[in-house]
Amino acid sequence: MHMAVAELSAITKHYERQGNEVAALKCVSFSAVPGELVLLLGPSGSGKTTFLTVLAGFQKPSSGQVFLFGKNILDYSPSELQYLRARHMGFIFQTFNLIEGITVRENIMLVTHFAHLGEKHAGRRTDDLLQKFGIGHLRKAYPNSLSQGEKQRVAVVRALVNGAELIIADEPTGSLSATQSNQIISFLRECVDQEKRTVIMVTHDERIKGHTDWTLYLRDGSLEPV
Amino acid sequence: MKTILHPLTRFVLTVLGIALCSLLMLFLLAIYRGVSEGSMLYVRESGADLWILQDHATNILRSSSLLPANLKPVIQNMNGIESVSPVFLILSSVLTSSGPATVYLTGYDIKTGIGGPPGITEGKNITEDNEIVLDRSFAAKYNIRTGDDLCVKDDTLKVSGLSSGTNMFVIQYAFISLHKAGEIAGYPFLVSCYQVRLKPHADPEGTAMALRDEISDITVIDQQTFLNNNKREMESGILPLLYTVAFIGAIVLTAILSLILSMHVLERKNEYAVMKALGAPSGFLPVLLIKQAMVLSLCGMITAATLISPLLCLVEKLSPEVAGETSLQHLAIVLAGIGIICLISSAVPIGKLRKIYSLDAFK
Questions:
Q1: Which chain B residue shows the shortest CA-CA distance from A52?
Q2: Which of A103, B141, B146, B290: CA 20 to 30 A from A192?
């Protein structure tokens, strides 16, 4: 039995909205082990992004415990948590979130810089991944000159470049066509199968279901297996 | 770092704003040095070891001193004295083509030449009572050339030469014979001070004490103290103004930088949030901001350093009495000042950075 890479234990998250307390997550428990691609489906406003941000430690739950790599998130110091994100976690955002004003290669190398990976090694790895994803020719291009599909491939490379064991993807195919979407999911599936990484992905795109190891459905803050 | 270049127009405008503020500071320093040189050179180059003035007078810039003209032989006969030169300093009006203008008329002994102009840039020094040497910036301002006649009170004097190092910014020296100065002032039996040169190995302190014992109601000041006194007077007149303008310039620069960097942070709020989410160390973004401020300032400083010399030339052409001199030391001072301003102006945007959360990357 593998140790869980990410685990949520009886997580509840409340928000204050116009004086009323709204529950975004209601006693949610979850765990993911290495080599799993987990899909979290749910309609808009169901609490999917809250689920991911609580899991990654970007916000504290109202109650319950979060474990990352077997350790309670509260036991990590802020700098340990920062290093954990830079070195062992990768993030893919719905809107790609590439930094304008710096090149594709610089965008990717930013993460390796945060993770304190040697520049030479990181540079080689970046170039290899760019080639693998078919965007090697774009290494010196700026994000505003890329298509949506190219941007998302750069974002995926950025999430993979540090050798992250846990990849968190928030609606990674939300802005992509069906073909582009399939391509991205295939890339992630390959990472999971070949490198035993864990991918936790939230989306409302049900077409992806077939590519995942297991799928959960988040409805009104509660998890339901599909 | 490169993100500071986008958009390029704003980068250029910011650099120009910083360059203008730096230029202002460099210009003020240059003016200070110019005024300082103009005010001090006459005393520094006098070659005097001791200055004798009326009791309680401490300098020749902003204190009156009147002494009898017949003290020269008394001083000359004392032990350790090599030479004595009386100087008569009076504020006087001269008639120029643009109307009356005031000069600091300096009468000196034309036989010894002591107390005369520290340097002649054009023409020659005076040799006759009916000649005058004008400061070159004064001559340039009023379009006076060597050989021209100039009315000083009821006299007409010929401009024999132009001097340098005699521009005190608000007023300029003009040199005439001691005899003519007495005539113009209407007091031929008075002088302002005596410049005393000592024999080699003479004791300045002992000689000064002996002079005070021998002659009543005088003050005897050694060269270094006299220079310091004059410098203090000059600085008390101009430094408060320069400090005020420099302070305003520094505040404007701090505000510009602070505003630009804050705008930069707000516009790129999402990118900063993404960097935080991707694991940027806590010091990475503040250091990035400070580096950006430094790059902006350095670019502004280089622009200012390139422009200062042409600016000083232009100002001197338009207004000859406003003479400035810049130096590497000035550049270093302004660069250090700009560095401090950078750090101060980074404080506000760094505060804004703290309010950007990695969670914002998911919005």
A1: B362
A2: A103
Q: Are residues B34 and B64 in the same domain?
A: no
Q: Provide the domain limits for residue A132.
A: 33-60+75-225
Contact call for A82 and B2, based on CB within 8 A: no
- Total-model pTM: 0.73
- The DSSP call for residue A204 is S
Q: Encode pLDDT of A75-119 as tens digits.
A: 999 999 999 999 999 999 888 899 988 999 999 999 999 999 888
Shortest distance between the Cα of B278 and any Cα of chain A, in A, equals 6
Half-sphere exposure in the Cβ direction for B250 (13 Å, CA):
19
Q: Are residues B268 and B157 in the same domain?
A: no
Verify that B151 and B284 share a domain, yes or no. no
Contacts B270 to A, Cβ<8 Å:
97
| Residue B231 belongs to a domain | no
| Distance to chain B for A148, nearest Cα, Å | 18
Domains in chain B: how many in total? Answer: 2
The residue count for chain B: 363
Distance CA B247, CA B221 (A): 35
Per DSSP, A196 falls in state: -
Which among A52, A102, A114 has the least Cβ separation from residue B281?
A114
Q: How many domains is chain A built from? A: 1
DSSP 8-state class, residue B216 = S
Binary contact (A58, B359; C-beta < 8 A): yes
- Kindly list the residues from chain A whose CB atom is less than 8 angstroms away from the CB atom of residue B3: 99-102
The answer to whether residue B151 is domain-embedded is yes
Q: Are residues B30 and B135 in the same domain?
A: no
Range of B311's domain? 2-39+238-362
User: Does residue A126 fall inside a structural domain?
Assistant: yes
Residue A210: which CATH number?
Answer: 3.40.50.300
Task: Tally C-beta pairs within 8 A across A and B.
Answer: 67
Closest CA to B82 of B204, B218, B193, B179: B204
Q: Which residue has the tokens 């005076």?
A: B126
Minimum Cα–Cα distance from A49: chain B residue: B362
Alpha-carbon torsion (B316, B318, B321, B324), positive or negative: negative
Looking at residues B331-354, what average pLDDT do you find? 89
* Chain A partners within 8 Å of B2 (Cβ): 101-102, 106
Digit-coded pLDDT (tens) for B183-237: 999 999 999 999 999 999 899 999 999 999 999 999 999 999 999 998 888 888 7
The rounded distance, in Å, linking the Cα atoms of B234 and B36 is: 7
Whether A18 is in a domain gets the answer no
Three-class SS of residue B121? strand
Quick check: is B223 in a domain? no
Q: Which of B4, B8, B10, B278 to mutate to test the interface with A (most CBs of A within 10 A)?
A: B278
| Shortest distance, CA A132 to any CA of chain B (angstroms) | 22
CB count, 10 Å around CB of A74? 11
Is B51 domain-assigned? no
Q: Is residue A121 part of a domain?
A: yes
Contact A86 B280 (CB under 8 A): yes
Domain for residue A182, yes or no? Answer: yes
Q: Does any CB of chain A come closer than 8 Å to the CB of residue B13?
A: no
Q: Are residues B61 and B195 in the same domain?
A: yes
